[in-house]
Amino acid sequence: MPGCIAALDQGTTSTRCILFNQAGDILSLARREHAQHFPQPGWVEHDAAEIWRNTQTVLNEALALASIDKRDVAALGITNQRETTVLWNRRTGEPIHHALVWQDTRVDTAVAQYQRRADAALIRSITGLPLASYFSALKIQWLLDQVPGARAAAEGGELAFGTMDCWVIWNLTGGVNGGLHVADVTNASRTQLMNLQTLDWDDTLLDTFRIPRALLPDIVASSAVIGEVRADALAGVPIAGILGDQQAALVGQCCFSPGEAKNTYGTGCFLLMNTGTQAVPSQAGLVTTVAYRFGNQPTVYALEGSIAIAGALVQWLRDSLKIIGASSEVETLAREVQDNGGVYFVPAFSGLYAPHWNAGARGAMLGLTRYATRAHIARAALESTAFQVREVIESMQRDAHVALPELRADGGMVANDLLMQFQADLLDRPVVRPAVTETTALGAAYAAGLAVSYWPDTDALRRNWSEAHRWNPSMDTARRDELYRTWQKAVGRTLDWV
Predict the structure, then answer these.
(1) In this structure, what DSSP letter does residue 298 have?
(2) Angle CA(1)–CA(450)–CA(232) in degrees, nearest 5?
(3) Neighbour tally for 474: CB within 10 Å
(4) Nearest to 234 by CA among 66, 356, 438, 106
(5) Checking DSSP bridges between strand 407-410 and strand 261-265, what pairing results, if any?
(6) Do the bridges between strand 86-89 and strand 159-162 make them parallel or antiparallel, or are there none, so unpaired?
(7) 433-442: per-residue pLDDT in tens?
C-alpha cells in the first residue's frame, strides 16, 4: 500500500494540498492564497484560472516538502468551497467570467422575485434549501443572462458549469482533452438544482431557473474512484474522494452517527449535524443537505446552519480597517480589555444566513461610546462569531429534538483561545478541539482512502480521532443571558436595512 493520501483543499481564500498518513497525521502542507475581487458592494469574485494555477503549484510543493514521489500517493481526495460558480468553454478551457463566490449577493433582486412566486415553497421542498443568493442556481442564471452569448452557447452544449470541485477535476483529468465533468452529491446538493430524494438534477428546477441541462456535470458518489489525474504532479493517481468543504469537515471529525455534529470556524461558520439516511426538513431556519455518500452505501443527510462571516470579519479588520497587521493579532488586541465594553458587531456583509435568511440585512456596529477602543471592536468581532453559532445551535436542537452534549470545533479560528472559551461560556457546554484541526482536508483524504481501501472502514477512522483541548464553560447564567439578549437586539437593528 502506498504511503499516503493527498488532499486538495480548494477554499475561499486559498488552495492547499495536505498529505496524510494512515494515522491521519500531516506529512506536509503547501498553500497558496488567491485574490479576492470586489467589483461592486456585495459582489465577490475569484479568478478560476488563478485557482487552477495555484492547484498545480501546491500539488508539486506538497510532494517536494514531504520528499514523496507520486507513486507513494494511494489516492487524491478533493474538497472545495461550495456554491461558488464558474462557467467555462469546453473547447478552449477558459472561464467566461470570474467565478461568483458563495458570499456574492448580486442576485438578491432575483431572490426576492422568486420568493414571491407560487412555487417558492416547492423549491425548498425539493432541494432542502431556502431561496437565497448563497446557492448556485441564480448565479448560473445571472452569468447566462449577463455574459454576451453565454445562454446560446450553453444551450448548444459549448459551456460547462461547475462548483470548484468540478473545475479542478476537469483540469486535473485532461481539461479540453477529455477532462471529466463531474460533481459529487454533496456539492450538487448545494446548487439548488438537485432533488434530495432522487440525487439527480431536477427538470422542474431547471425549468424554473432557466438552466440548460447540457451545462451540468454528472453526479457521482463522495467516495469512489472516478478517474485518474493526468496533470504532471500526480499523473496516474486515482481521484477517489470529493466532498464539499463542510461535509468534508463532518467526515474529518468522524461524525458518522446520527446526532453527531461539528462546527467549522473558517471564512464563515458552518455547523452540521448528521441526521442519518433520512433528510430532515428544517422548521427553524436551517438547510437540509447531503452529508456524504460512500460508494454504493445509502446516502447520509445532515442539517446545516450556515453563517456567512466569521474569520472573514477578522480579515476585514486587517485589510479594510487596518486595526491589526495580521489575523493572529486579533486575540492579543481583544485581550487588552476585560469585555466588549457594550460594543456589538453584527457582520451582515452579505445579509444574514441561518437562521434568519435575511438578504436585506447589512453589517452594523452598535453600542459605541467614547469609552470604546479598537480593542473593544476586536473583542466584539470575535464575540460575534460565538453569538451567531449559539443562534444556529438553538435552531438545530429545535429541528433535531436533541441537545448537543458538546461542540466539536475545527477550522482556523479554533487556535483562538479567547474565542473558544467565550463560545463555551455562551453555549454553557464544552467546546472540543481535535488533535488534527485540518479536518476539512482530512475528510477529503478519508473519503479517498476508503475508496481505495487505504483505510478499511469508518471504525478505523474513528480510532484516528483524538482530543487536543477542551474548553469548559465558566460564565454565570445571568451574564450569559444578558449578553445574548443584547446580541439579539443588535441583530434586530440590522434586518431589512436595504
Answers:
(1) P
(2) 60
(3) 9
(4) 66
(5) parallel
(6) antiparallel
(7) 998 888 899 9
